[in-house]
Amino acid sequence: MENNTALTAQDVADILKIAKNTVYELIKRGELNSYKVGRKVRFTLSDVEEYIASSKSIQKPLAGSVVNPSQSSLIQTSPAFSGNDFIICGQDLMLDVLSSYVEKQAPGTRTLRSYIGSYNSLVALYQGHVQVATAHLWDGDTGDYNLPYVRRLLPGIPTIIIHLTARIQGFYVPKGNPKNIHTWADLTQPDLTIINREKGSGSRILLDEHLRLLGINSASINGYLRESQSHFAVASTVGRGGADVAVGQEKVASQIKDIDFIPLQKERYELVIKKEDYHSAPVQTIIKILRSEEFRQEFEGIDGYYIEEMGNIIAEI
Question: Which InterPro entries does the UniProt entry name for this protein (predicted)?
């Protein structure tokens, strides 16, 4: 998909995995750029990528708005819930759909979204800035997802981990994979350039852990310090020839023109909450939604989501 390709509201809804009406709401709130052809609203891929990237720092005290955990004036800083607001941290668009469901099923509850990466999400939970963190952090020494990081980043805090979905992580490469990239060691090719994710994201930590295990110095990889803020952004960069490879999720690959996806490993994407908040109304609403057939059907037909364990409590720490 070229950056200047005209996208319809339905195209954008399909990319973001949200309702078409939500797309128009994003336009109305000034969060998503658009243009008109006659009476029809159109978008470019750059508009969508810009929304995903900029939403990490947009702050609006509105229902479903985006907050930055570093700005304590706009979020709760107490360990427990206060009032009817709560913040869900994480970057997967499934969380936007979840937030919409919560507001429908719990009238008067305002769901705020923070689009920061997994590592910073757990830090924000530890500091009391958010109520729901999400993580897909792989530990190279144990081969486990999330539990080792929860223990390190939330020391002494009882937590509950709830499964959301599994996803496939791998490489975005140009069509035909001209550089023959199949393993982590292939990233050291001298004529190869990568585009990286930001520090703290699950994809960046996955890359760093594999490089550590292989004894590869990140400084030897061309483009390692070049960062982008979303899977869509790095995939489209590879698709238009701006890089030879990037690490990302399977589900994005089918939405970007001129790239192939090289699967590497299945990851676990999970919600993390403090045990003291488990019986709160917002968290119980989330669990009810995740276990509902209606919510599961939203994602059963989408490639890249593996939802068999959705809503299961994985661990209590």
Answer: DNA-bd_dom_put_sf, HTH_17, PBP_domain, SinI_DNA-bd
Is 224 found in the same domain as 92? no
> How many Å apart are CA 117 and CA 130, to the nearest integer?
13
Among candidate residues 87, 111, 110, 52, the one with its CA nearest the CA of residue 255: 52
DSSP 281: H
pTM for the whole structure: 0.75
List pLDDT tens digits, range 291-313: 999 999 988 877 789 999 999 99
In whole angstroms, give the CA distance from residue 162 to residue 43: 36
Are 51 and 233 in contact, with CB atoms under 8 Å apart?
no
> How many Å apart are CA 223 and CA 225, to the nearest integer?
5
Q: How many degrees, rounded to 5, is the angle at CA 15 between CA 12 and CA 18?
A: 75
Orientation angle between helical segments 231-239 and 45-54, nearest 10 degrees? 150
Q: Are 170 and 264 in contact (CB under 8 A)?
A: yes
Question: What is the signed CA dihedral for 94, 96, 101, 102, rounded to 10 degrees?
Answer: 120
